Amino acid sequence: MTSERLHTMLRFVAALPGRAILLVLRGYQLFISPMTGPTCKYYPSCSQYAVVAVQRHGAVRGSLLAGWRLLRCNPWSAGGIDDVPPARPHKHSLTHVASPTS
């Protein structure tokens, strides 16, 4: 198995949790949300915020951001526009180091 193929497979497996979360969120948006009507005080809605957060930040950090947003969405909050923060730049980069030749 080539290194490139292995890398592609690992990326696919790593993306599965995020895809599962997005599938659940989309199901909520299609089947449950229409029954409750517009109730969110924020723009974008909490479910759309969660979708963007997971897409932008991944399953773990995106879920944490979405959970924090749900905690802020309460009767005492003023609401308003609340965008998902931008993705953090990677602090490290992978570089190929050539082996020394004698």
Describe what is shown at a glance.
This protein has helices spanning 3-36, 46-57, 59-72, and strands at 42-43, 80-81. With 102 residues, it is mainly alpha-helical.
Summarize the structure in words.
There is one protein chain. The protein has three helices and two strands, in the order αβααβ. The protein has a two-stranded parallel ribbon with strand order 1-2. The longest helix has 34 residues, at 3-36. Helix content is 59%, strand content 4%. The protein has 102 residues and is mostly helical.
Features:
2 strands, two-stranded parallel ribbon, mainly alpha, 102 residues, 3 helices, 4% strand, 59% helix
Write the layout of secondary structure elements.
Layout: H1 3-36, E1 42-43, H2 46-57, H3 59-72, E2 80-81
Parallel strand pairs: 1-2
Helix pairs in contact: 1-2, 2-3
Proportion of residues in helical segments = 55-70%
**What gross morphology would you assign?**
elongated
Instruction: Average the pLDDT over all residues and give the rounded result.
Output: 87
Task: Give the structural class.
Answer: mainly alpha
Radius of gyration (CA) equals 19 Å
Uncertain runs are: none
Strand count, sense and barrel status of the largest sheet are: 2 strands, parallel
Strand content: under 5%
**Helical run tally:** 3
**Whole-Å distance between the termini?**
29 Å
